Amino acid sequence: MKKKLTIGINTLFRSIPGGTSFEYSVDHYYVDAILEAGGVPLMIPTMDQYEYIDTFLDRVDGMIFIGGQKFSPAVCTEKPMSHFQTGRMRPDFELKLMKETIRREMPVLGICGGCQLLSLASGGRLIELPENGTTHENRDHTATITENGWFSQISKIPLHKEFTVNSNHRLAIDPEHPGKELIVSAVAMDQTVEVIECPDPIIRLGVQFHPERMNDEKRNFFWHWLEMLA
If you write DSSP's letter for every residue of 90-101 in order, what string do you get? Predict the structure, then answer.
């Protein structure tokens, strides 16, 4: 019997509106995508106790870092940014978790905010998208493969081929500073970074869009990603 891969998923830690309580949360789309692809999801709480990071990572075969609430300006860049209302709580834990995942050379998939986290943990930078530019909030748009690599293999999209993605972000990865060892392998129609990856035997991949919400492509994308990990 083939062993099922265990995939860690980080969680958001956030306050519950109207009260003083807090919750750990992860959108069911991420969990469902792993289950439908034949993996076993293991949700990792975002906490203050960094010493548990090794314990969590010892139990998984790969990591998914999710999207969600924005990172605060202090985490993203030294330059002030104007479009922040709420930031992620406990972003230091997520950053340390990502850095340790990279240090261990474990497979990693960063989605939306998780893609940006992969860049930040690798020494990359984020930029704020201009208000008068093409909006990337709550819409679909086209993107193009610019380099062959993990993403083109997993998505089965050839070099220079256009494809459609969903989009919901106000920050983007600086194309001049994606992060150490990372390359940009797909860009949106306005040249905003859509995919980053490390050309390495270990899959280190970040996508700015949400494949877990793309019904037609979801099962194949995560199935092929897990197959690459096996």
Answer: SHHHHHHHHHHH
